[in-house]
Structure to design on (246 residues):
């Protein structure tokens, strides 16, 4: 969410009515999240000036660990230097820390492609935004899910119940530090996740959703202490419930 919001912001800056705008003091502390959107807190160090040049050799974009040769345009400006400066700063301050860690395994290669392409400045802001929107579409639609055996049949569902909230086993990347709370596309995906975790015996799906509209599922190591909740469904492994009265 943070990276996509940042890319949308940089897309606007690259195509603003004032021309391409560079953020000269590009640091994470210069941004805040407001209603799920990343915003710049200080525009004092923004500039629409692009470096003047006479030849391509005048247009090297320098960073502490990398440099990029750019083209000198026919009007004597280093072509796209503001856009590329913003994009590489997004790569080194945001993408490298946030992109590799929390996506479903099937989407990680696509995010690695974005990471590598922006790190080498092979993508401009237009291509980067399109790549992010493609990943978001796959994520929201569930098209990233690979065909696999149907596992939900191995679970008993109880509508209108959930387990008592409390600390349970933890997983990555959980929305809660007290247990294993993950976003899912469907109960079938939740069943696959539960089957992949040795501790998991049940999971609960409520009406709580993430910014993409995906429901949240809480994965549990037991299914005892059920309490009524009209907005929840608890799914219990048949193997865990065998010999028990539901």
């Amino acid at each position: 969410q943070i990276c996509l919001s940042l890319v949308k912001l940089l897309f606007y800056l690259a195509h603003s009515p004032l021309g391409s705008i560079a953020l000269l003091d590009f640091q994470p502390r210069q941004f805040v999240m407001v209603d799920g959107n990343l915003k710049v807190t200080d525009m004092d160090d923004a500039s629409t000036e692009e470096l003047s040049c006479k030849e391509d050799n005048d247009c090297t974009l320098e960073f502490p660990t990398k440099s990029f040769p750019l083209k000198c345009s026919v009007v004597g400006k280093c072509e796209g230097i503001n856009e590329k400066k913003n994009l590489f700063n997004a790569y080194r301050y945001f993408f490298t820390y946030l992109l590799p860690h929390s996506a479903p395994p099937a989407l990680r290669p696509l995010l690695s492609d974005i990471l590598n392409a922006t790190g080498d400045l092979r993508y401009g802001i237009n291509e980067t935004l399109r790549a992010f929107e493609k990943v978001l579409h796959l994520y929201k639609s569930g098209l990233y899910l690979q065909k696999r055996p149907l596992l939900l049949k191995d679970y008993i569902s109880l509508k209108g119940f959930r387990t008592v909230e409390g600390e349970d086993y933890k997983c990555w990347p959980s929305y809660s530090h007290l247990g294993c709370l993950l976003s899912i596309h469907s109960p079938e995906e939740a069943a696959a996740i539960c089957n992949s975790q040795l501790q998991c015996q049940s999971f609960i799906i409520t009406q709580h959703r993430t910014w993409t509209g995906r429901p949240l599922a809480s994965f549990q190591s037991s299914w005892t202490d059920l309490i009524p909740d009209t907005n929840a469904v608890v799914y219990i492994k048949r193997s865990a419930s065998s010999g028990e009265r539901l």
